[in-house]
UniProtKB/TrEMBL annotation:
InterPro entries for the chain: DgoD-like, Dipeptide_epimerase, Enolase-like_C_sf, Enolase-like_N, Enolase_C-like, Mandelate_racemase_C, Mandelate_racemase_N_dom
Protein name: Dipeptide epimerase
Domain of life of the native organism: Bacteria
Similarity-based family: Belongs to the mandelate racemase/muconate lactonizing enzyme family.
Family matches, as NCBIfam families: racemase_DgcA
Necessary cofactors: Mg(2+)
Source organism of this protein record: Neomesorhizobium albiziae
Active site residues per record: 150, 246
Length: 327
């Protein structure tokens, strides 16, 4: 039976402003891919990311470019050769997973060996700001067991200390978004260790991180912008202790599973993370993250309005998706 594919641009307001070292935004811009076959339809959501050269229009065009392949029955494995890793392939891949589940009646969780997925504790992200403002964010979320703190500039040690003092019972991840340098990384790492930080994401720019091979890691260091797919893992040996797997970077759940499994085989710790998107984008990642060391799937918690139905969050606990949402 022939398939059809459609792409819809959607915008979801963020609750306040979300700020990282590269800038701020007030809404999540997403593309939703829907693939239909007969009476069944599957959906996948992606978040185009300018850091990787993606725009809403370029990702839309990339999805439209495989219309004939999808209509002709291209499956998820075929996508790995006809589309590059990135947001466009993620949307198509996740839509195909959802469609397969709808047609077969077999949940994606069962298909990937996670038939009874458990609720997960997700990090909650605090935006970059002045120490006093970040401390206020931390106090407001001090009851959460895991906080992820956006940093990446001059004065980061003061920011870290302010957050730790304001949320003394929370475990804290730092995310520098490539904002540190060779000149300050040793000092910042030492301070992070002294303040009890549990993980640091991407302190240095991707491709300019060779110093990580030469210095001690008093806190485990996790690659984010430096890792996309399983093929890139070999170059990270000796530089990073863990990898942050995001579906929009890997290009879908299919490639993300391969990345996770290869990372485990090579001894890397695993974080499963996200862009700022809706529950539709988080749903497949919740299944991927069932055995992750760190989970950062708080995208919907940062929005003023999510999809309905969406994922169920109880505090920092997120449950697996119901069939009406995805998979």
């Amino acid at each position: 039976m022939p398939r059809d594919i459609s792409v819809q641009a959607e915008r979801f307001p963020i609750a306040g402003t979300f700020t990282i070292s590269r800038g701020s935004k007030t809404e999540a811009e997403v593309l939703t891919c829907t693939i239909t076959e007969g009476k069944h339809g599957g959906r996948g959501e992606c978040v185009p990311y300018r850091r990787y050269g993606e725009t809403m229009e370029s990702v839309r065009q990339a999805i439209e470019a495989v219309r004939a392949d999808i209509a002709g029955g291209a499956d998820r494995n075929a996508l790995l050769s006809i589309m590059p890793a990135g947001a466009a392939r993620n949307a198509v891949d996740c839509a195909l997973w959802d469609l397969e589940a709808k047609i077969s009646g077999r949940r994606v969780a069962e298909s990937i060996g996670k038939a009874k997925p458990s609720p997960l504790t997700t990090a909650f992200t605090l935006s970059l700001g002045e120490p006093e403002a970040m401390a206020a964010q931390a106090r407001a979320n001090a009851g959460r067991p895991l906080l992820k703190v956006k940093i990446g500039g001059d004065g980061d040690i003061a920011r870290i200390r302010a957050v730790v003092e304001a949320a003394p019972d929370s475990r804290i991840i730092l995310d520098a978004n490539e904002g540190w340098s060779d000149a300050n990384i040793r000092e910042n790492l030492t301070a992070a260790a002294e303040l009890g930080i549990v993980l640091i994401e991407q302190p240095l720019p991707a491709g300019k991180d060779q110093i990580l091979r030469e210095i001690t890691h008093p806190v485990p260091i996790c690659a984010d912008e430096s890792v996309h797919t399983a093929e890139g893992l070999e170059a990270l040996k000796g530089l990073y202790d863990a990898v942050n797997i995001k579906l929009d970077k890997a290009g879908g759940l299919t490639a993300a599973i391969a990345l996770r499994d290869r990372a485990r085989d090579m001894g890397f710790g695993v974080m499963v993370g996200c862009m700022v998107g809706t529950s539709l984008a988080m749903a497949p990642a919740v299944l991927l993250a069932q055995d992750a060391d760190f989970v950062d799937l708080d995208g919907p918690l940062l929005l003023a309005q999510d999809r309905s139905p969406g994922l169920v969050y109880e505090g920092s606990m997120v449950s697996a998706p119901e069939a009406a949402l995805w998979g």
